[in-house]
Amino acid sequence: MSVVTSPPSTHTPAYGHTGGGSVWTRPGWWRALLWTILAAALAIAVPALVRVIVGWPWWQYEVMSTCLMIATPLGFLSGIGCFDYWGKYIVGSPLPEGHADHGAYSWRDYFKVNTDHKVIGIQYLVTTFVFFLIGGMLAEAFRAQLASPSNTYFTHDAYNGLISTHASIMIFLFIIPAFAGIANFVVPLMLGAEDMAFPRLNALSFWMLPTAGLIMVASLIWGGFNTGWTGYATLSTHDPTDQGTFFNMGVQFAGTSSILTMRAPGMTLSRMPLLVWANLTTSALVVLGTPFIAASQFMVMFDRVMHTKFFNVADGGSTIMYQHIFWFYSHPAVYIMMLPGFGIISEVISVMARKPIFGYRALAFSTVSIGVLGFSVWAHHMFVAGLQPWLRVPMMVTTMLIAVPTGIKIFSWVATLYNGVINLATPMLWAMGFLFTFVIGGLSGIWLAVLPIDIQVSDTYFVVAHIHYVLFGGSVFTIFAGLYFWFPKITGKMYNEKLGKWHFWLTFISFNATFFPQHYLGMLGMRRRVWTYDERFADWNLFISMMAFVLGAATLIFVYNAIISWWRGEPAPDNPWRALTIEWQVSSPPPIFNFDGAPRVVGGPYNYGQPGAKHVVFEEAPVTAAHH
Amino acid sequence: MKRIAQFIALGTVLGLVLSAIFIWIVDWFPTEGSQQSKNNFPLFIAITYVSFVIFAIVLVAMGYSLWKFRRGGPSDMRDGDPTHGNTLLELSWTGAALLVVIFFAAWGAKVLDDNEAHAANDRVITVHAYSFAFAYQYDSDGGFTRTDGLYVPVGKTIVLHMVTPLFTPGTKNLEVIHGFWVPEWGVKQDATPGVVGKTVGTTYVKPTRIGDYEVQCTELCGSGHGEMHFKNIHVLSQAAFDKWLTQAKALAEKVRAEAAKTPGLAVFNSAGCGGCHTFTPAKSGGTTGPSLDDVSQDYTRAKETSKTEAANLTGFIRESIVDPNAYIAKGYAPNIMPTSFGSSLSATQIAALVGYLAKGGSGP
After folding, report:
1. Residue A48 falls within a domain, yes or no?
2. Among the listed ranges A496-500, B72-76, B234-238, B281-285, which one has the minimum average pLDDT value?
3. What distance in Å separates residue B240's CA from the closest CA in chain A?
């Protein structure tokens, strides 16, 4: 059933017009520019003044760069208008109407601070894809270097900078926030909520993403941080640049988690779509884990700037401690990057196979158990690091136990296909491609868990292959499945099916050709993070580099398809996949305030094959009263 | 249920064929050069078979559904079978996954235990890893150190302790983590600054094949990481090793005797003073810190400005070594020189170094 879009006139876009004033005083890009410059000037002037007064040389690189990296993002965020509402609240000025900066009425609204979860979702997705392309280009650059063992396109430090920035961008600026984008757009609709629980916090966390991203990309200009994305002490010249992103993600997912209290009537836990279960678990992981990564990066920053001694062994610090703190977050982070993808796959497979998801309860519980087990396995990253010997076998066992709930998921998805009526449209192709590659990534994960094998292959291309099978073949494939699946809902246009299929097949083939041989290279002795390698690996590396270029080209098909379809694609029907979940029962794109009737959940989300089954009905109550 | 049995049967056959291709034709395991890699080999083979079989079963079941249960076209509005699950089937695959996992975890623990089997009288060698080289200290053979490679006898278990100095020798740079890996040996261990325990950071290897092997650094350690690999791991026959050991000991004795004549110079070199300081008698030209040729002028200046309480030149030099920030030579900044020499050098070593510097390099 479709719902009429709210006429724009009922909600005046007061945003950006409140109080009038010139472009330099009202929230927006001009004020952001002004305040960023002012903040930068202050960040230099204040410490310089203090240093001159106490008689030190006025310039000190670590101090100045840290002050700049803290002050300029704050200047930008304040200037663009992230703090205006709270600022007015604190000083007691009249507050703008509650929905003043909600919803997009023209393309310009996407470039402003906006509290509409759908606008924020689109802002996230477009921004993260820009970073995906930048990260991809870095990868193509170092694959060019690796095409032959004697290439010298980059200095050694520049090469280390490329690989480190590639990994950091892909993990922190693409995969994690891309899932945040999809979740932002879809989850409130799926739950029957009219927005996120903390929309202004949600907007703030989005605007931190381009800010953090800019700092990270800018680091390349200064030669990049060349420590690998893990930034192990004592090598960490790891700038505090990551802070913004990590903080950003923490706040973002905290927002997602709180939304669960805003479920529509009738949405019991057993009627919740699996994507929501996945995001619930992910949020718990983020809330518990993020403080650890933040702490580890702050401690590195303190060591660098304030000469504290957390990791300085010469003065009683510990380097192993960094690894424990880092991995206590960064292993659960792997599930932060995978569980939302599992949720997407469950949605896509059930709808496209026209069948209830096989073993709903087992899938939901396996998600939660992966989240819990995920916190007890971090030291498997440290089997060769000089860990207490007794700790290794228990960590191997817990790591391998995660294979059980993961296996349950794979088998359940395959069983869902059986006796279905399968529509192999592009989103389903990506879901099937995901099953293929993720089984490989999961199995190589078991290899890596077994101690003697891990000791042989850790820090080699085997690990590079594994991480790309789970993060690219896993996470990125699910992101594409989700993007094609919800593209009609998000944009109101249909994507081009033919281009979608080309994109899938080219990616699928070149992905496997790029990464599968790396298992072999790692096992034989090619270590990771090196700009050169043994002659005997030259042929395979040339092949891998060529395939990596094909993989990059395939992504351009997607970019073209997305732009051209959004611009002048065919208008999408409200429910092109005949799905039951709530987001498909509203117009494409959804109305500004999501629902014009009040949704009431009356059944499970996946009851395909049962004639007349409904997940949600809308009561034609006036909803304006519910707006506050 | 019959269909499931068919999937499993077909998947098993396909998986075994794929495994055989990878094990026997692609041959993707490195040469076995040690007892440890021999212990690993059956585990590698078994997990290859099991992995490919699981992969193939999933592939067969998925492929069958994709081939058999397709939608007729855009006008096909049928739904699938409204099955919500099958408790027996779900319990079976949970149980099967659990069994596979327990089996490999137990086997992995057993192999790890076998790989680390060693006796109290096994030869102990300390591996010093630093930016960007390895040095090998033969603890069980008198403690001499070699920088030209690792020489070990075939068929004897070697205990390798990994150690990284706090500072890169000859510099003031804090050291970083390195890794020690000989692929043919099937063992790997990081060397971490500050980790000096006897069980943490230790690995065991019993080479079984004579030959020259390459050691690689496996932990990103900075700009020289790419070049930090050396084909200087030599596994010798017992006779050849004994001959090498005799020569190595004689050489070490000669070097020690030389050093005994000039203990101050020996400490100066081993502590890396020359990396930062110019001192003509020691032929060092570092410019990070003040020149030690002028140390008596520095003492006079410090005395005149009452910035030192040292009663004489040797006292001043001692103070500058153990507490470098007490007096900072003109034109230099504090907190550059490590403050750890007071604890990292022995009293005898400091005395020798102080005497050597005080006498302008002419003393012993």
Report:
1. no
2. B281-285
3. 28
> E strand or H helix at A599, and its extent?
strand A598-601
Please give the model's pTM, rounded to 2 decimal places: 0.86
Q: What is the mean pLDDT of residues A265-282?
A: 77
**Under an 8 A CB cutoff, do A610 and B82 touch?**
yes
Is the distance from CB of B175 to CB of B258 less than 8 angstroms?
A: no
CA A624 to chain centroid, in Å, comes to 34
Helix (H) or strand (E) holding A73: helix A61-80
Number of domains in chain B: 3
Chain A nearest-CA distance from B225, in A, is 7
Domain span including residue B303: 262-358
Which pLDDT band holds residue A1 (cuts at 50, 70, 90)? Answer: very low
Treating both helix axes as pointing N-terminal to C-terminal, what angle do A117-146 and A156-168 enclose, rounded to 10 degrees? 150
Cβ-nearest to A360 among B84, B97, B339: B84
Indicate yes or no: CB of B192 within 8 angstroms of CB of A386: yes
Nearest to A527 by CA among A254, A137, A295, A228: A228
Q: Are B141 and B53 found together in one domain? A: no
Chain B: nearest CA to A393, how far in angstroms? 6
Of B205, B239, B361, B208, the closest CA to residue B296 belongs to B361
User: Which of B55, B67, B103, B192 is the best substitution to test chain A (most A C-beta atoms within 10 A)?
Assistant: B192
Residue A343 host element (H or E): helix A339-353
Q: Nearest CB to A386: which of B176, B195, B224?
A: B195
| Domain range for A144 | 102-585
DSSP-assigned letter for residue A596: S
Q: What is the per-residue pLDDT across A274-297, written as a single tens digit (0 to 9) for each?
A: 888 887 788 778 777 777 777 777
Find the CATH number of the domain harbouring A502.
Answer: 1.20.210.10
Q: Give the residue ranges of DSSP H helices in A306-318.
A: none
For chain B, list the strands marked E by DSSP. 123-130, 133-138, 145-146, 150-153, 158-163, 178-182, 187-191, 202-205, 211-216, 229-236, 278-279, 284-285
Rounded CA separation A249/A254 (Å) = 8
Residue corresponding to tokens 């009040």: A598
- Shortest distance between the Cα of B248 and any Cα of chain A, in A, equals 30
**Residue carrying structure tokens 């136990």:** A401
Chain B residues with CB under 8 Å of A523 CB are 28-30
In this structure, how many other beta carbons lie within 10 angstroms of the beta carbon of residue A134?
Answer: 19
Could you write out the DSSP letters of every residue in A431-474? HHHHHHHHHHHHHHHHHHHSHHHHHHHTTBHHHHHHHHHHIIII
Cross-chain residue pair B29–A523, CB shorter than 8 Å? yes
Tell me how many domains chain A contains: 1
Of residues B90, B223, B338, nearest to A156 (C-beta): B223
Q: A452–B58: do the CB atoms touch at under 8 Å?
A: no
On the 0-12 / 13-18 / 19+ scale of CB atoms within 10 A, A42 is middle
Paired tokens of B68? 């058999």
Instruction: Specify which residues A311 forms β-bridges with.
Output: none
ipTM of the shown complex: 0.87
